[in-house]
Amino acid sequence: MDFVQELRGLIGEESVSTNPTVLEHHSHDESYHTPHLPDVVVFPKNTEEVSKVLHFANEHRIPIVPYGLGTSLEGHVIPYQGGISIDFQLMNQILEVRPQDFLVKVQPGVTRGQLNKELKKYGLFFTVDPGADATLGGMAATNASGTTSVRYGIMRDQVRDLEVVLADGRVIHTGSMTAKSSSGYHTTGLFVGSEGTLGAFTELTLKVYGIPEVILAARAVFPTVEEAVSTVVDILSAGIGVARIELVDARSIQQVNLYSQTNYPEKPTLFIEFHGNEQGLNYEVDFAKKLADENHCEQFIFETNSKERAQLWEARHNLAYAFIHRSPGKKMMVTDVVLPISELAGSIKDARKAMDDAGIDGAILGHVGDGNYHIILMIDLDNPEEMLKAESLNKHIVDYAITRGGSCTGEHGVGIGKAKYQRREHGDALDVMKAFKAAVDPNGIMNPGKIFI
Amino acid sequence: MDFVQELRGLIGEESVSTNPTVLEHHSHDESYHTPHLPDVVVFPKNTEEVSKVLHFANEHRIPIVPYGLGTSLEGHVIPYQGGISIDFQLMNQILEVRPQDFLVKVQPGVTRGQLNKELKKYGLFFTVDPGADATLGGMAATNASGTTSVRYGIMRDQVRDLEVVLADGRVIHTGSMTAKSSSGYHTTGLFVGSEGTLGAFTELTLKVYGIPEVILAARAVFPTVEEAVSTVVDILSAGIGVARIELVDARSIQQVNLYSQTNYPEKPTLFIEFHGNEQGLNYEVDFAKKLADENHCEQFIFETNSKERAQLWEARHNLAYAFIHRSPGKKMMVTDVVLPISELAGSIKDARKAMDDAGIDGAILGHVGDGNYHIILMIDLDNPEEMLKAESLNKHIVDYAITRGGSCTGEHGVGIGKAKYQRREHGDALDVMKAFKAAVDPNGIMNPGKIFI
Fold first, then answer.
1. Going by fewer Cβ within 10 Å, which terminus of chain B is more open, N or C?
2. Could you give the residue ranges of the DSSP H alpha helices within A77-173?
3. Are residues A332 and A316 part of one domain?
4. pLDDT of residue A320
5. Where would I find the FAD-binding PCMH-type domain in this sequence (chains A, B) (predicted)?
6. Residues B202 and B221 reside in one and the same domain
7. How far is B36 from chain A (nearest CA, A)?
């Protein structure tokens, strides 16, 4: 532990903490995964300090875990091997807004809420919305996505350039400020989603969009999950500009009503948001409604004023809390998988049946335009039998997805929770990933134990 | 050369050729770069044969060059170190169309024309249009893009999964059939654009789109390049769904008129295509026209019937031939760079001035929505002074771009022509790229001498 003293010499007393509360704060994320303390937490103020810390850690084979706000869901930031947790909260500057280029340069500790507040002044917004007000560095590290990805793409699609500090302290830039490039390997895409295992991000250049002229929200109620999903396929085929299209199953709507004092019909429901200009949108919304009708939509209700619209998305975002609320003493286990959209309805039905069979309650909700859905299970971590059931349910859902050309996680990432499915999903490609990691982190100091087991 | 006999034993007499005409055919691409013969050309029929060839070549340290149709523009497929050219023309099957998932699985030798003919039956189309009717394997290898990328994205955005044969013969899949994933490293994006230096592609899963209800084309004429570019920025800011928006400069329009018997005003011109549904489009087109007017547009002319529309895009696509036609005995040197869009107008003006100063004639045309433009120079390869001038012009244009946050190639790729700019553009990140290559191709047999020098 004398390395802590050396760290203090390296980047200053005030930037290095072993305070028990600070250590505890960096021992967990928002998931059910078991916490573990780091030996020390550092708070660098710039790229140079990050470089110094990594170079030092690499020389001494000390594990490094980059840490944003700890909102990850698969244990990504838990330092299971101790070592140094790097907290980027002091690197939280918005460095440059380039409205004409639809670009912004930020430090990794900037949150998406903070960024959107600044961008609003320019009539711009940052699209990726994973729910939590995460840091942009963290969102790039896990390749976050969320409700708006069906229209605007995932985190990887927004990152033009990363400044990355490698394990040995070298600082590289992975891209440029251009919309596209065919120069050299596309390492930006590889670093996005690498979960801190390839390097630490110290600057991000991100794509932003103009705030749409009109935003409309609607709720569409269907007899079955199949008909809801089929509507989504029809809407996407027609090229209608939905910006969000979220599925909430009947059981979950029940819980929404209880928790949010809403009175929504307790059937499979799509929560939809349209972005566009007034004339274009009117036509598109009518068209979407017609497509929903053809799929036996029972109600298609516009939330025209901003209060009702806010209530609708609040109800959707509060779904997790709705289940937490009624399950005192239990902890949330969230899993997410993604499939080709043609396999989505079958997968969701199968998952609900598996939950019923196992006697575990929970929510099913999906970014259905992406073929991505989540299951929120409420479990008692101290009940080994229930834990076992939940784990086996998780495995069942992942198996179903991978067998049908899907993936074990659409947006939460691998962390520790999905590491056991990597070989099954990637086969020999997993060895290629390991080889890429070894090429830039030969000593294995960067977030060890994550992704690869 | 006795390895050729061994190859025949490995994959059959009929699949291995040393016929001089065949060798010559595989010695060049469409560029001005000096040809070089391979020792042998093989025509594998399936993944297993590709794997056998690579494994064999790796054991014997024989260079491998994957070959599609040879339409590349920077010498990518020229076997400067001899060895084996792998021609994928026999692997040209469309394996599966999944309309509901907007996906198609193809072998690498399928051309985009062949694919679009098949997709039409389903009301779908493949979006990437680099001009040439290239193979999809080749387009993935160079990360091709083109006129439609402003709306639908580049080749990398379309590739969901690649089956890749690695140097040692291992066969991996880099992705899945899903719209997104956060499982493991995104190796798909790294292999796309790797120009045959990381492995050979044997199967591609690609994203396709519904054919738009209505397609409208227009020509917008401006007093200056700046005003044309400014219109593009305004159109993109407004979220108007342009599918193509191409800039052709005044000098190039002159040549178009001469060659295509058109009578277009000889001023900076945008060639625009709108995709959408009728009602939505009418509004968007009016809006676009208004934005053009605000930028002093002198003419905004719709090519309403399909014949006029075809003539417009033919004129655009024939621009290269228009210059070739008037320069008998000269060869085309095409260069492409990409910049943040705010730097585009300045870059194009600077390039035209540099061409005038050097006394070299040529076309300037750009995928201006992407910040990408090409210069087509007509040069006499046997005139060392002219070659030197052209090379120095190329360098000037690249320097201008990189200095302003741009990249030395937007879509043509590195090959041999842009290898010398890689260190300047990527700095230490180039060493990371090399390390990734070494991780999967330790003997350096895959397309040696390309990208890295």
1. N
2. 112-120, 136-142, 149-152, 155-158
3. no
4. 79
5. 34-211
6. no
7. 23
